[in-house]
Amino acid sequence: MRTRILLCSIPLAALWMVDAADAPITSNPIAEPIVKRGLAVEVKDLLRLPDTRGLRPADQDVAPAGWARVSYVRDLPDGRRFANDSRGFLYLIDANNQPHVYADVAAAFPHGVYTRLESGFIGFVFHPAFATNGLFYTVHSEMGPGNLKTPDFIPIGYGLKDVTYHNVITEWHATNPAGNTFEGTRREILRTAHVVANLTHPMGAGNSTRRRNPAMRITVCSTQAAAIMGSAMGADRTRAIPRRRSGSIR
């Protein structure tokens, strides 16, 4: 009988702890005053990317009044700094904080779409061994209707007629990794299909769409994140990806 009482007391205690955790906070959980230790953060302007307003018609730009649409700023171990304008340019920032076009990404992908906050030239990342292998990766979005390319993956139960957008990962190979402008080749690694009305989370965050489309529980864009992670694990694994859809650009 004692054993039974002890065993029953365990779930009762757990229930009490849950109730306590859900109870509203009625007192300051940090009794001691927060002491300032002299730390300060200074925020200052570093540079301004070139004005790309008017690059395309206003109805094709989600923010036509925006000076430029910066998504990422990334530093290489050699000290060089890069930033992208999602309207289609990858910039190299020099020692005087002046931007110079490293690669015209938009020119390479004429079917790009720029009507969403996360659209166009969405992001980029350098391979950890970029200094020796010259590899970096980009993600961009394209229109689905009228696109001559066929996605590598369309969700089960859907067909080409249902594709609204394409999400594309591209590997770029710089022949001279130390160069200040890109020269080399590129290849398409993965092209996945969007089958929902809005272009959302194309870089890999899964997005529930069940409310609007009960047959589709999550966007397939999470495939992109897996591909980027797999590609960047190492030079050997990256080069082992089957070469396809190759091209060159200067």
Give a quick rundown of the structure.
The chain is of the alpha+beta class. The chain is built from five helices and nine strands.
Features:
single chain; 250 residues; alpha+beta; five-stranded antiparallel sheet; four-stranded antiparallel sheet; globular; disordered N terminus
Low-confidence stretches: 1-12, 205-225, 231-250
**Overall 3D form:** globular
Please give the number of β-strands: 9
* N-to-C series of helices and strands: HEEEEHEHEEEHHE
Helical coverage, percent range? 10-25%
The percent range for strand residues is: 15-25%
Distance between the termini: 82 Å
- Helix vs. strand class: alpha+beta
* Main β sheet profile: 5 strands, antiparallel
Rg from Cα = 24 Å
Q: Domains counted in the coordinates: how many? A: 1
Mean pLDDT over the full residue set: 79
Give the quaternary arrangement of the chains.
Answer: single chain
**Tally the helices: what do you get?**
5
Strand order of the largest sheet: 5-6-7-8-9
